[in-house]
Amino acid sequence: MPKRFRVALITGATRGIGYNVGKEMVKRMPLTTTYMTSRHNVDGFQSILGMQLGAAARERAKFVRMDVRDLEAVNELKEKIVKKFGGLDILVNNAGIYHAPNKSLSVFPKQVQEILGINYWGTKNVIGSFFPHFKPHSRIVNITSNLGHIMSVKNMEDELKEALRLRFNSCNNEFELDGLLLKFQRDAIQGTWRKEGWPSCGYTVSKMAINAYTRILQRQFDEDDREDVVVNAVYPCTKHSKIDQSDMKILDDEEGARFVFYMAAVKPNSHGVFPRGAVIWNNSRVVDNRDGYTYNNKHQQQLPLEIEQV
Length: 310
Fold this sequence. Notes:
eight-stranded mixed beta sheet, 10 helices, 14% strand
């Protein structure tokens, strides 16, 4: 079987889990060119990666400054990749931002705008731009969070939590989901978000949206009859300095990155059970976001995954 040359793109890839996912791909996939982006300055990162993995790694890793909110910049990189490689094989959407919730009417709307602008609308910019160009057997990983779990919402009655869960689960397409997020933004601006049943954490809403979007996106790929194109939302359970993870089994960035790598590089139709459009935790536990979550499920059985060696 001839070896396949592939191309991967990781956003938010100059630190933490994003950098380590890219590092794992460059190390373990010598026939893959890996683009690693950040909205910040990327000067020097190629040399650093080369010192860590060897000179040859510098040729396989391409660091690019790109803000996922800038659709022109996203399209520019897309055109470059499509022209050179014919499409994209792996996409890891890691670019994101977190703000500790501030309920001030002068602060919260700005937090919501920035958080959704990167975490949700920015992710959609990247996927939308590459949507026609995902190759057969492509893998897409959207990084999610424990704060995207309904049980993480604090200071909200159980009935309101259930209503919030149903809001996202009832979205059957992008148009409905976009409308829901636009409503949240309007409610934040008008200062009525709590009255309208929203939590006071924009990051939580953004990750709930990513989980719902992942489900919707998989359905779109399946309806388009795209050959084995799979998208999942993955929570790697790595340390976040600003988020309460006291009830979680925390992994270091390297271990979390290996799990994300597995989800992004699994063989086509692995065992016939590879999850599709699912929310997955760091122990390979598939979580059905239609029927609720298995929270803190670190003792559950892992999925048998095969990794494509290329």
